[in-house]
């Protein structure tokens, strides 16, 4: 039985604790922490997990770690887990800057084995997996374009315009790299007329991604669209199109519930088999954050911005 520690017991931390405790097999939650100590105490007591004062204490008390705290704290905890030689599943983003992600990549390379997985759950969603199999199987000839929409009914009061890139569209940045096996080489962010539900946000955004092999992807983010949580995708190929299935949902928990289950079950199973995660890597986390940085620059300047990645270490080549 894998003894899991959870750092950050907010929305997704609680959702993952629920699935580890009542849905999945092979793991149990033994340690939790949160800077909100009252929250951590309640969540820990409900599942019989020890409540620790710091993330580092949680890492010491478990076999593998889930980092579900706010993005700016991810680097510290992921580095501490690598330092302790423990597998760590980090919710997106891996870290909030490309240079912080590079420090994580470098630490993993120095350690010599894969320990980090990033929470890009779309790779585990049945509809996305079907789309990828069909596109990769040549059903529509060579893919040329992809249209994506990422619509949230609403967002919390602390949500800022850049978060449509770094918090929301970051899922599409990872998804298209995985879908087509190509890096994103340039990004341009366009700012349409604003939705008045957005209380001052620039919403929606229209993001144009250029892939290394010439495929172009457009991503609409609308984060105050009221009618529901709607994730769309359509690949245009030489001989036809493929459309992503999936219902309009209430929110991300509802739409991706099964994908989160599969993501963490496969993580538990991979650790049981080899001790190493097989899902999205620290390199994938770095590549997505590099696109986010370029996207924020494009939002500010209105220009097309190229994405420059470092050379990929051999640890991440397979
Ligand atoms: N994969 C997905 O679809 C998905 C969905 C939601 C959230 N997320 C990611 O998960 C993370 C958490 O998001 P959330 O919606 O649960 O937010 P949240 O605010 O509900 O929960 C985060 C919790 O982390 C705690 N925290 C913050 N800094 C901490 C620190 N340094 N040490 C310990 N605890 C700390 C907060 O007190 C809070 O309880 C974010 O990185 C977010 O982007 C991913
Ligand atoms: O943190 C959430 C989460 O990542 C969701 O999957 C996404 O749809 C939201 O826009 C984002 O705010």
TrEMBL record:
Which organism encodes this protein? Answer: Actinoplanes lutulentus
Class of the enzyme per the UniProt entry, highest EC level: oxidoreductase
Q: What is this protein's gene name?
A: iolG
Which InterPro entries does its entry note? Answer: Gfo-Idh-MocA_inositol_DH, Gfo/Idh/MocA-like_OxRdtase_N, GFO_IDH_MocA-like_dom, MI/DCI_dehydrogenase, NAD(P)-bd_dom_sf
An example Gene Ontology molecular-function term: nucleotide binding
Q: Name one GO biological process term.
A: inositol catabolic process
**Methyltransferase in keyword set:** no
Keywords per UniProt = NAD, Oxidoreductase
What family does this belong to? Belongs to the Gfo/Idh/MocA family.
This chain's protein is named Inositol 2-dehydrogenase
Name the HAMAP family on file.
Answer: IolG
């Amino acid at each position: 039985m894998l003894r899991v520690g959870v750092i950050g017991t907010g929305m997704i931390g609680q959702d993952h604790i629920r699935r580890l405790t009542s849905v999945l097999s092979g793991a149990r939650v033994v340690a939790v922490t949160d800077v909100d100590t009252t929250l951590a105490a309640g969540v820990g007591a409900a599942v019989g997990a020890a409540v620790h004062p710091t993330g580092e204490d949680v890492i010491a008390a478990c076999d593998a770690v889930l980092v579900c705290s706010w993005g700016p704290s991810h680097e510290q905890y992921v580095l501490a887990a690598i330092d302790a030689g423990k597998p760590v599943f980090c919710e997106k983003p891996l870290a909030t800057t490309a240079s912080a992600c590079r420090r994580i990549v470098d630490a993993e390379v120095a350690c010599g084995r894969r320990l980090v997985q990033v929470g890009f759950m779309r790779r585990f969603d049945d509809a996305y997996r079907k789309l990828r199999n069909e596109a990769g199987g040549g059903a529509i000839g060579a893919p040329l374009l992809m249209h994506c929409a990422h619509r949230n009914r609403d967002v919390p009061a602390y949500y800022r315009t850049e978060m449509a890139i770094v918090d929301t569209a970051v899922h599409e940045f990872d998804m298209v790299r995985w879908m087509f096996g190509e890096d994103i080489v340039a990004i341009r962010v366009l700012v349409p007329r604003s939705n008045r539900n957005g209380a001052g946000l620039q919403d929606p955004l229209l993001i144009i991604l250029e892939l290394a092999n010439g495929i172009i992807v457009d991503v609409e983010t609308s984060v105050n669209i009221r009618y529901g949580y709607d994730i769309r995708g359509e690949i245009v190929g030489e001989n036809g199109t493929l459309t992503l299935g999936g219902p309009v949902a209430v929110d991300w928990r509802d739409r991706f519930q099964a994908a989160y289950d599969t993501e963490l079950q496969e993580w538990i199973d991979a650790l049981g088999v080899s001790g190493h995660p097989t899902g999205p890597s620290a390199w994938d986390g770095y590549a997505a954050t590099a696109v986010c940085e370029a996207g924020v620059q494009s939002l500010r300047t209105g220009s097309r911005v190229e994405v420059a990645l470092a050379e990929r270490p051999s640890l991440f080549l397979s």
